Amino acid sequence: MSGDPDHPNLKKSERHTQILLELRLAPHVRVVDLAAKFGVTTETVRRDIADLSAQGLLQKSHGGASPCASGTRRVLDERQRERLEERRRLAHKAAHLVQDGQQLMIDAGSTVMEFARALAVLHRQVTVVTNSLQVAMILGSSEGTTVIMTPGSYLNDEAALVGTETCDFLRRYHVDACYLGASALSEAGVSEAIDGFAAVKRTMMEQSATRYFLMDGSKFGQRHLVKIADIAEIGHLVTDRRPDGALAAALGAENTKIILP
Q1: What SMART domains has UniProt attached to this entry (predicted)?
Q2: Cα–chain-centroid distance for residue 67?
């Protein structure tokens, strides 16, 4: 395997350095591209990515790697590691629902960050209004994507902006769709555990022609303090498994569209 003449016979440590440099310039790198560039097998690159992931220097993603979230603290980082494959699969599905030229609102959270990464990998040509620093950073490096960042009070644990200023700013825009995460979903509706998020989510819903909630099955049957939406207001639920029991009955009664990977 000849490889790129700019990277002849790189040692393991040198490959690691180059992978991290690539991720400073792009929201996603592919195993096959790195293998060709370095003149090594794809299995070698996968081991490199696994090593860097174990050190917390990048995130493994479908077919390659993405940068680690920066500017966040332990709370969001811990959630990012939970049910990661499930969230990536549903985020990938949600990204394929987006068409070039659309205007979107995307809120903050671990699942919508995976959605933003999937949009970047697909190179969707969209305009995104967001209160999430991470979503803005991920999509801001994607060519053809326009990112509009809200003002507001900064929540460091969530790398997000919230408050009256945030909601007032969002009301200046009307978009094709909003893509939102949430902490819980029961037959009583969608609810949120993080103070300040509910008002932002509700405002995004009001300003959007179509609504998508991105939640994995671990959120089903849960209920938190602050209600975001009734079942009738959800619109579309993008998830990794079909709800059952009372929740399924409630969603069915309101004709909520369930979208599975």
Answers
A1: DeoRC, HTH_DEOR
A2: 13
β-bridge pairing 64-67 and 29-30: antiparallel
Distance CA 5, CA 212 (A): 46
pTM (two decimals)? 0.71
Q: Which fold has domain 74-259?
A: Rossmann fold (3.40.50)
Mind giving me the DSSP string for 65-98? EEEPP-S--HHHHHHHHTTHHHHHHHHHHHHTT-
What Cα–Cα distance (Å) separates residue 117 from each residue in 61, 91, 92, 168? 9, 9, 9, 27
Question: What b/e string do you get for 52-62 counting C-beta neighbours within 10 Å, with b at 16 or more?
Answer: beeeebbbbbb
SS3 call for 226: strand
State the DSSP code for 62: T
Instruction: Give start-end residues of each CATH 3.40.50.1360 domain in the chain.
Output: 74-259
Q: In the chain, list all ranges with CATH 1.10.10.10.
A: 12-67
Neighbours of 150 (CB within 10 A): 26
**Amino acid letter, residue 255:** N
Looking at the domain covering 12-67, what would its CATH class be? mainly alpha
